[in-house]
Amino acid sequence: MEIVGQRLRTLRESVGLSQNKLAGMIGVRQSSINRYENRQSVPSIQTFRWYADYFDVTMDYIFGRTDKPQGKLYNYEPQFILDKTENNQELRQFVEMCFNPKSPMNDKLKQTLIKMLEEGKI
């Protein structure tokens, strides 16, 4: 189950959450998150479902059955993006354009995001 711990850690770190913050969101202790990530304990089914829903990935990804977080027919909408954009329509529109390859602004938005990341503004 080594891959499970690695995937749980990678998901948490990918959005910049501390173990403590994530634990509060899930309703467990920080030490539990640490044990999950270090393969010393196995999360409950409810916790696995929480991870899959929040990070918008499949259980197959969490369990290492695939390296693709989403399946072919899967609509990628991670909860953390929805949380950030829920009350900000302009930001929501920006995010939607960023992830739409058919958008005429797609290339320009990619470059803008890369520049912002490089400058540490995100």
Descriptive key words:
122 residues; 434 Repressor (Amino-terminal Domain); 61% helix
Task: Give structural notes.
- This protein has helices at residues 2-14, 19-26, 30-37, 45-55, 59-62, 79-85, 89-98, 106-118.
- It has two domains: 2-62, 434 Repressor (Amino-terminal Domain) (Orthogonal Bundle), CATH 1.10.260.40; 87-118, no CATH class.
- With 122 residues, it is an all-alpha fold.
- Helix 6 packs antiparallel against helix 7.
- Helix content is 61%, strand content 0%.
- The N and C termini lie far apart (33 Å).
Beta-strand portion reads under 5%
CATH overall fold name of the largest domain: 434 Repressor (Amino-terminal Domain)
Low-confidence stretches: none
The level-1 CATH class of the largest domain: Mainly Alpha
Give a short overview:
The chain has 122 residues and is an all-alpha fold.
Topology of helices and strands:
Layout: H1 2-14, H2 19-26, H3 30-37, H4 45-55, H5 59-62, H6 79-85, H7 89-98, H8 106-118
Helix pairs in contact: 2-3, 6-7
